[in-house]
Amino acid sequence: MNKPPLSPPMEPLDYPASALRDEVSTLVEDPRTDTVTAAVTDGFGRLMGKRLTKRYYNATERKKPILMCEAIFATDIRLGDVPNILGQNASFQDFQAVPDSSTACRSPWAPNEVLLLCDCMRMTGEPLAISPRQILKAQIDAAAAMGLQFQMASELEFYLLGATDELPPTQTSRQRLRDAGQRQDYHLGQTAVDEPVIAQLRNDLPAMGIPVEYHKGEGGTGQHEIVVGHAGALAAADRHVLFKHAVKQVAANAGRVATFVAKLSDFEDGSGGHVHCSLWSLNGRPAGGRGARKDELSPEMRSFIAGIVAYIPELMPLCAPLVNSYKRYRPGVFAPYDLRWAFDDRRAAVRVLGEGDSLRLEFRIPGADMNPYLAYSALIASGLEGLRQRLKLPAPGEPPVAGPTLPGTLSAAVRAFEQSVFARSAFGVETVQYYAALSGWEANLYAATVTDWERARYYREA
Length: 462
Description:
9-stranded mixed beta sheet; globular; Ubiquitin-like (UB roll)
């Protein structure tokens, strides 16, 4: 991340509301436009919503709200029903999807369509508490009450698979690729194979208001990373979900498949979802300190990092929501498996780097499968609690000797989340119960499933 300007380019949240409305009207009234897509994010961070005709959107925007059903929040990652997740007597009522004008964009691959991200509001006008975007907004407000705001960005790794790959890829098919010598970390020759897709993304993303800094190959076979510019916390999370949507769409249009699963196979590198975060005062001054040395970090930055180390283990379903997420954490790779923080150390859970205005922490625990609104919220909430408690920062490079540890499975993470007094205090009982149930459902389905690994290992010997 480069020096964050006080009014970042392409940062729509700085525009006056009237200018935003005028900009949306211009996009919608463009003769090319025939569709307006209203989207919300579900508990897993996926875009869900409706494609409206231009005529209907214009009538709706002026006279009545866009309505969607709470059933969006009552299904698992495969859209199977999660029993009673909204309560035993849930009637699956409508909620209002209120477009946020600052998110309006046109997808280059669909020039007829204008996309708008929406806030989820109950019919009575209150925010829908379990909506991911509303959860992040609440944490941004909590930070503002303490005099802080954030510049943030996601670094997402993903695998780009070929049309001839077995899907989902098996160990045999991936091993064939590995034997072909296609590891590609920084390898310009190997990544050239995928360059037509990646080049389109480098061009299409800025057209959607998502500035691209660079692309590089990652360590896995067919693994890539595209780094996008930073923004305020909410805008950065919005960029994240639009980025992921774009990658999947552009890949599909090219006859390819992009996957953000945290651990694609037992021998491939995992895909991280690293979150960069810098601290700023409300008047736009850096609040993190001068540089990436312990004596140059501000007291606020030290307590903020200490809060992450202390409280993130209680919030892991917000950072790592799937069974597969926890298979990424192991020694010997760049994914953290303990709670070390350090200066410019990619093995650490929290990496501190940069100087001056670019001083920031890199939160390396989330995988590419994270919901950014939730992972950002967990990062902010735990850091703010460190500030409230004025926690002391442990020594860099060493995990806390008697402190908390990362849960090793989704089931353990859900238990810690459900039992956390801090989680209920930071997010409210309704939100904790909902996301514990959502991730707990995934954990229970996995626990009841007999896998190919079990059959292959035990059927002759047991």
